[in-house]
Automatic annotation (TrEMBL):
Gene Ontology MF: a single term: transaminase activity
PANTHER family in the cross-refs: DTDP-4-AMINO-4,6-DIDEOXYGALACTOSE TRANSAMINASE, TRANSAMINASE
Enzyme Commission numbers on file: 2.6.1.-
Keywords: Aminotransferase, Pyridoxal phosphate, Transferase
Pfam families: DegT_DnrJ_EryC1
Protein name stated in the entry: Pyridoxal phosphate-dependent aminotransferase EpsN
Species lineage: Bacteria, Bacillati, Bacillota, Bacilli, Bacillales
Family membership noted in the UniProt record: Belongs to the DegT/DnrJ/EryC1 family.
């Protein structure tokens, strides 16, 4: 028996305008780097999320790196960072020669725990060494509890960088996720809610800061006809062709959000009453995009583990994945300090043990989603679920 068509976790989903805009870039012969599409993309992004300015770069990782350098993160400094995330959230700390300190999640949002953050600040305040910055990650399309987090960071005068790579389009108290910190970072990697195949955006209300970072991102070229450089720079800018794709994608972002939220709703209706199944909660006063439908499966009640569900789906040619492995558990960061939610309770480790992400692409058809749901129900039945 042949396998059914593969169902991916979160594949790209192009709209109708992207090809025309790329064509425009070709016709004007603005292929790379930079050009009018980049400028328009920056302007449209800034308007969409409601900030003064935006800087288009070649990845979300580059955007984070620029933000940390601007905040003078340097050799021997420490930076607090959400532990429950993709490695790209913390790597730029190390690029700057600084050391990450990892902060656990809370149950309400799965994102940074304000109480773990407060304990970390108390600890480092006693040592007389505050972090240079706090990187707050907004996972799976949901904002962290930014009011509580900003209150703590403001008390200590430490700036926040929001890693909103996964939360473009989400809101918190009616305001766009990624616009709460000094800097916000979005990603247009192939698996994100909108994509340019690869790319990122740095947003801020501080136009002067963005100008400085734009300079660094284009090899720090001084104002001179000859190539002169007084500062270290990078080749971090986004190409004009990819910005054209980004503009088309931004035009359909709201549609992508409602599609992903509907997909979540269908999973929720079909699976939320199964014993041991718990979907990622929706934080009060926030509207997540449900970039990925994420849930935990407690094997004690479900009679099956999240890993076994992922395997069963893989056998049906369906891509599901574990949630992010906490960064403090990564071999790369094994020597870094970690502050759990409470002294003896680590939420991110529990989420990692039981969590999984289901196929959530905005182009997932109802038929394909039914295949995913049926496969899960079948494997549950075959295990003789406890009632
Ligand atoms: C995708 C992602 C990034 C990195 O973005 P790139 O554009 O791939 O460099 C950073 N943080 C999180 C949480 C991400 O999911």
């Amino acid at each position: 028996m042949g396998l059914d068509k593969r169902i991916f976790l979160s594949p790209p989903h192009m709209g109708c305008e992207e090809e025309r805009l790329v064509q425009e870039a070709f016709e004007s012969n603005w292929i790379s780097p930079l050009g009018p599409q980049v400028e328009a993309f920056e302007k449209e992004m800034a308007e969409y999320v409601g900030v003064n300015g935006a800087l288009a770069v070649n990845s979300g990782t580059s955007a984070l790196h620029l933000a940390l350098r601007y905040l003078r993160v340097d050799q021997g400094d420490i930076v607090f960072c959400s532990t429950f995330s993709f490695v790209a959230s913390a790597n730029p700390i190390v690029y700057q020669g600084a050391v990450p300190v990892f902060i656990d999640s809370e149950c309400e949002s799965w994102n940074m725990s304000p109480s773990a953050l407060a304990r970390a600040f108390a600890h480092y305040e006693r040592m007389g060494k505050l972090p240079k910055a706090v990187i707050v990650v907004n996972l799976f399309g949901q904002s962290a509890d930014m009011s509580a987090i900003l209150r703590i960071c403001d008390q200590h005068g430490v700036p926040v960088v929001e890693d909103a790579a996964e939360s473009l389009g989400a809101t918190y108290h009616g305001k766009a996720s990624g616009t709460f910190g000094k800097f916000g970072v979005y990603s247009f990697n192939g698996n994100k809610i909108i994509t340019t195949s690869g790319g990122g955006m740095l947003v801020s209300d501080d136009r002067e800061a963005l100008t400085k970072m734009r300079f660094w991102a284009s090899q720090s070229r001084d104002l001179a006809v000859h190539y002169q450089h007084s500062e270290l720079g990078y080749n971090y800018r986004l190409s004009n062709v990819l910005a054209a794709i980004g503009r088309g994608q931004l035009g359909v972002l709201d549609k992508r959000i409602s599609a992903r939220r509907s997909i979540f709703q269908r999973y929720y209706l079909a699976l939320s009453n199964l014993d041991g199944f718990m979907f990622m909660p929706e934080l009060a006063n926030s509207l997540p995009t449900r970039w990925l439908t994420a849930l935990t499966v407690n094997p004690l009640y479900a009679g099956i583990s999240s890993g076994e569900i992922i395997e069963a789906l893989a056998e049906e040619n369906i891509e599901a994945r574990p949630v992010w492995k906490p960064l403090h558990l990564q071999p790369l960061f094994k020597d870094c300090k970690y502050f759990p939610h409470t002294q003896d309770k680590s939420i991110s480790e529990q989420l990692f043990k039981d969590g999984l992400c289901l196929p959530s692409g905005s182009n997932l058809s109802e038929e394909d989603q039914d295949r995913v749901i049926k496969c899960i129900l079948t494997v549950m039945n075959s295990r003789g679920t406890k009632k």
